[in-house]
Amino acid sequence: MHRFICLLFTLIIMFTTLQPNQIHAEDKNDSIAKNAQSAILMEKNSGMTLYDKNADKELPPASMTKIMTLLLIMEELDKENLKLDEKIRISEHAASMGGSQIFLEAGEEMTVEDLLKGVAVASGNDASVALAERIAGSEEEFVKQMNQKAKDLGLKNTKFQNPTGLPANDHYSTAHDMAVMARELLIHEEITDYTSIYDDYLRKGEKNEFWLVNTNKLIKSYPGMDGLKTGFTEKAKYCLTASAKKDDLHMIAVVMGAEKPKERNEAITSLLDYGFGQYEGIKLHGKEEVLHEMTNPRGTPNTLALVPEKDVVVLKKKNEAKSNYQTSITLNEKVELPIKKGDHLGWVTVNNGKEEVSKVRLEASEPVNKANILELWKRSFRNLAGFEKF
């Protein structure tokens, strides 16, 4: 485990805010998500849970599994281990997937971007496996990466057996865990360029042209909806992890185990309406704001600006009053050069008194390489007083 050193400043920020309390279905608002086995409403930027109904109940997630699949795909794209214009040759195994599919044929070649559309829009099981095989070498190895990522995210009630959500023994998750996965996926903002598509075409103009239609019909009817993933099997019933934005709020709503698609959509709509109707967000720091500068005479450049990974936002109920929030910075004790843009180097934590309200990773705003011998020689003559170490 990394140890952290508390550095420099604690910013006491006065706002017309009060920490929103988590609302439990058994306490009030029983009409919200009444037809779901489990549900949760989480605000993405703050990470606050606003509503919870059996959110830790282990259930089959069906195709909502693909939220984790998409997360690993987006991470590979960010690392440039995968390119959108790269063509992938489809294996017999990938082409054999049943359920939702984009009807890939063994030996066919399709770009990563089109396969990504196939997963995000049409919930293609064949596209999911094709990308899994490209990233990890086999579906089995990709599933190991999925479960390791779940562990890294601290998800204790999730286990995957495949990247698709097709029925399998010992394949389960929870509404809470799906919301955390969705929150992590939405850090990759470009994912909504795909999940917000209502319809599109693959192989356009060819004999085997395929019309993609989003399985999430709320994309077209709910204002601000930009994703994320539906799911259905006989055992899982109707599920949906949905994302919608309004002003400084970005809500994630998860419903699992609804008997009918209409009931699922009504539950999602009621959750989102509750969140947007009762709460407002206040941005403490923007994701481009420099919150700290680190210096190191061994690096080029030798000063590095740290910015939050996403907007630092707290919520308030619309009818509630003042509170003091304290924002503190902690940095990783040891970071090796070179540093890549986006590397996580610390945290910005928001507290309301003794209670932690939000925690956002601090990341490098640009790459830092090791200084060469000439640069180090020049710097040896400078006054190093006040320099900080990484």
Automatic annotation (TrEMBL):
SMART domains: PBP5_C. GO terms for molecular function: carboxypeptidase activity. Its EC number is 3.4.16.4. Pathway: Cell wall biogenesis; peptidoglycan biosynthesis. Residues 279-370 form the Peptidase S11 D-Ala-D-Ala carboxypeptidase A C-terminal domain. PANTHER family: D-ALANYL-D-ALANINE CARBOXYPEPTIDASE, TRAFFICKING PROTEIN PARTICLE COMPLEX SUBUNIT 12. Removes C-terminal D-alanyl residues from sugar-peptide cell wall precursors. This is serine-type D-Ala-D-Ala carboxypeptidase.
